[in-house]
Structure to design on (438 residues):
């Protein structure tokens, strides 16, 4: 009996074809990246090769107005793990296709961006070899219009992502400035402090723009030195008004801080936006690596007021210089809550580290005795305590206390930690009667 094989052949072909239809979609499935953590680009990014351009390109909303192919942008974050890192951007290129280069560690990927509305674009997988701070770097390679693109968020995931530290959008301004750190000194017990002496040294290379190395801080004001720009540095002495406002124009007359007199080339003016009061400053080109001395007097004065008088000593000049004497109404006290701090007041340099050493702190009490203050307590601001930035440290090094912040280094000091520096046992040799009078 002959068997007709043709139906069987067609049946086999049909079964094979059906099997192919089932298998093909599986072959086309893309290995999607794990992008479970969203990092706001605006709060965590910097144009690292241009401070001025950073102020234009990076804002609370993200990376915008990005036009230059020479701009190098970095987004910083800290991970608790190492290994494979998945990266994506919430990005758009509204003027046509742009090409960007994304780098993590030693690995780079080139990606074309053509979507004109915001979409999540997968960049790829990278490897990070350690836990701690890392950055994702991006640079434009090609563009069709004026702008390279807009980035709202950086998305990460993968095995390298355990817990992640970054700045949330609601703390963008202070988060980009970086954590402020303080060292509070143990004062003589049961005595009134009339004079407060401190020495300040900024190591070479640690004098980043925006730094305020505040030497003589107290309950009502502060006194120290700043890096205001690439060409200007200041000695700054300020006293807050006892009236609580950020607008100096709202301070009643009987609460206004008064200028009793100031030194030569010193500007005295009102200030606001961080409480309000009177500030005085002298433009002075102090140098990193040189030790400067700060001396502050505080004592009760007439009509329930307190007079604060600040003096600055630069070895380049060789004598104490009067900065200013400021009277704070509605306050009758001597100096209290003696401390120093380090802060950055320019958000576009919050990715650059800075360090300061404070040495030989002394308090002169109303009984005519100098007391050396060798015990300090380390504290930090809300950006640190809330876990938004972890690049802050402080402690004791020989005869000095030190503070360091910003730059995304991996060391952190426990807030509230206490330190003891080595005593110098050399009291300041100051003839108060020869100091310039206000």
């Amino acid at each position: 009996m002959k068997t007709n094989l043709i139906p069987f052949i067609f049946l086999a072909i049909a079964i094979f074809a059906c099997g192919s239809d089932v298998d093909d979609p599986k072959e086309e499935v893309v290995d999607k990246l794990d992008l479970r953590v969203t990092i706001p680009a605006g709060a965590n990014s910097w144009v690292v090769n241009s401070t001025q351009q950073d102020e234009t390109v990076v804002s609370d909303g993200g990376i915008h107005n990005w036009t230059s192919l020479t701009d190098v942008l970095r987004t910083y974050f800290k991970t608790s793990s190492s290994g494979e890192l998945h990266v994506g951007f919430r990005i758009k290129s509204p003027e046509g296709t742009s090409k960007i280069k994304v780098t993590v560690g030693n690995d780079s990927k080139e990606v074309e961006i053509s979507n004109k509305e915001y979409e999540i674009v997968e960049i790829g997988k990278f490897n990070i070899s350690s836990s701690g701070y890392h950055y994702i770097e991006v640079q434009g390679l090609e563009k069709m219009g004026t702008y390279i693109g807009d980035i709202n968020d950086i998305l990460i995931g993968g095995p390298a992502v355990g817990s992640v530290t970054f700045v949330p959008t609601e703390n963008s301004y202070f988060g980009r400035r970086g954590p402020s750190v303080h060292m509070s000194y143990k004062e003589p017990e049961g005595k009134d402090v009339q004079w407060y002496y401190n020495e300040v040294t900024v190591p070479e290379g640690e004098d980043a723009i925006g730094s305020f190395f505040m030497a003589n801080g107290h309950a009502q004001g502060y006194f120290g030195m700043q890096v205001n720009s690439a060409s200007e540095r200041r000695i700054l002495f300020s006293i807050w008004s006892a009236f609580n406002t950020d607008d100096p124009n709202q301070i009643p007359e009987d609460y206004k801080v008064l200028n009793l007199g100031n030194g030569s080339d010193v500007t005295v003016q009102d200030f606001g936006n961080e409480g309000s009061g009177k500030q005085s400053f002298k433009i002075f080109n102090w140098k990193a690596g040189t030790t400067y001395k700060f001396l502050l007097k505080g004592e009760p004065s007439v009509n329930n007021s307190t007079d604060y008088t600040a003096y600055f000593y630069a070895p380049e000049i060789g004598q104490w210089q009067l900065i200013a004497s400021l009277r704070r109404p509605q306050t009758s006290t001597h100096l209290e809550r003696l401390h120093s701090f380090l802060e950055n007041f320019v958000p576009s340099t919050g990715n650059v580290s800075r360090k300061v050493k404070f040495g030989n702190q002394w308090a002169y009490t109303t009984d005519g005795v100098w007391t050396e203050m060798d015990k300090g307590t380390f504290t930090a601001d809300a950006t640190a305590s809330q876990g938004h930035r972890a690049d802050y440290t402080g402690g004791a090094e020989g005869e000095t206390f030190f503070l360091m912040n910003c730059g995304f280094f991996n060391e952190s000091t426990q807030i509230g930690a206490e330190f003891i520096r080595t005593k110098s046992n050399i009291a300041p040799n100051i003839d108060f009667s020869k100091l310039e009078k206000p």
